[in-house]
Amino acid sequence: MENSAELSGKYLGTISNDFIKVCDTLKEASYQLRARKISSYPIFPLSKVRLPIGQVLLEKKEVGTDWNYYFSFLEEFEQRELVTEDKKQDFINNYKDPDEFCCLFVVDEEFTKFVFIPYPED
């Protein structure tokens, strides 16, 4: 598991362009997951192909993005052993304020990484 706010140039542009289009929806989904006490640690997997992680939130063909967006949370990542017990505390320690940052789990052919991207200021 690697947490980083930095993306390679290959991903920075496409994810940033998409994020502007979907950030309000992701922020609201994050709020709802926390408000309903489903999880304190929302995670938004994104991929260009279908993923078996989480539930589909936004499909690229429907919202005009390059990526499909899913919603999930730490507990599902633990169940699927994507975050192992010995790395759980590291994840929690690195998790940024979900009111200010979106936790993305970027999945591509040669790239799988947790990325925290700030929500645009209102």
What would your notes on this structure say?
The protein is of the alpha/beta class and 122 residues long. The chain has one domain. Helix content is 39%, strand content 28%. A 6-stranded mixed sheet has the order 1-6-5-2-4-3. β5 (101-108) and β6 form a beta hairpin.
Task: Tag the structure with descriptive keywords.
six-stranded mixed β-sheet; alpha/beta; 4 helices; 28% strand; 6 strands; globular; 122 residues; single chain
CA-atom Rg in angstroms: 13 Å
Total tally of structural domains: 1
Q: Beta fraction of the residues?
A: 25-35%
From the helix content, strand content and strand pairing, which structural class follows? alpha/beta
- Give the number of helices: 4
Strand order of the largest sheet: 1-6-5-2-4-3
Helix content: 25-40%
- Rounded to the nearest angstrom, the distance between the terminal CA atoms is 31 Å
Order of helices and strands: EHEEHEHHEE
Largest sheet: 6 strands, mixed
Give the overall silhouette: globular
Low-confidence stretches: 1-5
**Average pLDDT:** 89
Number of strands: 6
